[in-house]
Design a protein that fits this description.
The structure is a single chain. The longest helix has 10 residues, at 6-15. It is built from 1 helix and 6 strands, in the order H-E-E-E-E-E-E. With 67 residues, the protein is mainly beta. The chain has one helix spanning 6-15; strands spanning 19-23, 27-32, 35-40, 43-49, 52-58, 62-66.
């Protein structure tokens, strides 16, 4: 599903009967041991299918910081 706009992906998944929605967020932080990956202004899609939840995060830039 690379190259699809998040809104288009949500509509396509809904058409297939998969629960998908966009999640509004100002930022996402991913902790990796001594480093933290900061994602500003992400586009997040939440997909629920067969009892599992999947988050897709799209962004244009990230910052990696040492903790």
């Amino acid at each position: 599903m690379m190259g699809l706009e998040p809104k288009a992906m949500v509509e396509m998944l809904k058409a297939q009967g998969i629960d998908a929605k966009e999640l509004k967020a100002e930022g996402v932080f991913i902790k990796m041991g001594k480093k933290t990956l900061e994602i500003s202004h992400p586009q997040i899609t939440v997909i629920r299918m067969n009892g599992a939840v999947s988050y897709t995060i799209n962004c244009s830039e990230t910052d990696e910081n040492e903790v």
